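Supplementary Text 2. Reproducibility record for the structural model of the 74-residue chain.

All settings were left at their defaults, and a single model was retained for analysis rather than an ensemble. We include the record here because the model underlies the residue-level annotations in Supplementary Table 4.
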Amino acid sequence: MFDFIKRLFPRKGRSRFVDLSGKACSDEEYNRIRQQQQAEAMRILHKISTKGEKSLHPEEKEFLKRFSQSNYNR
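Retained model, structure tokens:
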């Protein structure tokens, strides 16, 4: 009888999320990484506003592209 009750209320596993790199992570880790990514995006946007878009490195452009696409895919 106990097994029957356990099957009625299965344990839920921890939610898994995927960050920009495609790595699966826990909810807490995802939130921490997402905050870091948002801070990096703000730093790059500030750089654009002060020095212009031509001052960006190719890696910064690629980061902004991936970051903006990840916001649309939510």
